[in-house]
Amino acid sequence: MDKVVYKKESYEIVGCCFEVFNQIGPGHKEKTYQRALEVLFKDKNIKYQSQFSVPIKIKDNQIGRYYFDFLINRKIILS
């Protein structure tokens, strides 16, 4: 059974992650990796939103927000 839902997009995203790591290496802050990924996403025309958030609710009351690093192509969350 195939477990990858969006194969093409997932392959591109993982490729970008490896490219960032290969170019800048380990030990940087998360924000540095996020900025590097944004450069590659723009370069490869991958549509994304950074710092995407969703409300956390209980009984129709918003009690907070959860932030993801990226929403890619309006269907893949990268956190």
Beginning-to-end CA distance, first to last residue = 25 Å
The percent of residues in helical segments reads 40-55%
Strand fraction equals 25-35%
Give the strand order, joined by hyphens, for the main sheet: 1-2-3
- Spans of 5+ residues with little confidence (pLDDT < 50)? none
Mean pLDDT: 94
Please count the beta strands (DSSP E, at least 2 residues each).
3
> Biggest β-sheet: count, sense, barrel?
3 strands, antiparallel
How many structural domains in the coordinates?
1
Q: State Rg.
A: 15 Å
Number of helices: 2
Could you say which structural class the secondary elements and strand pairing correspond to?
alpha+beta
Overall outline:
globular
Task: State the order of secondary-structure elements, H for helix, E for strand.
Answer: HHEEE
Q: What kind of assembly state do the chains in view correspond to?
A: single chain
Structure description:
This protein is of the alpha+beta class. It has a 3-stranded antiparallel beta sheet with strand order 1-2-3. The protein has one domain (7-78). Strand 1 and strand 2 (61-72) form a beta hairpin. It has helices at 7-24, 30-43; strands at 48-58, 61-72, 76-78. The two termini are 25 Å apart. Helix content is 41%, strand content 33%.
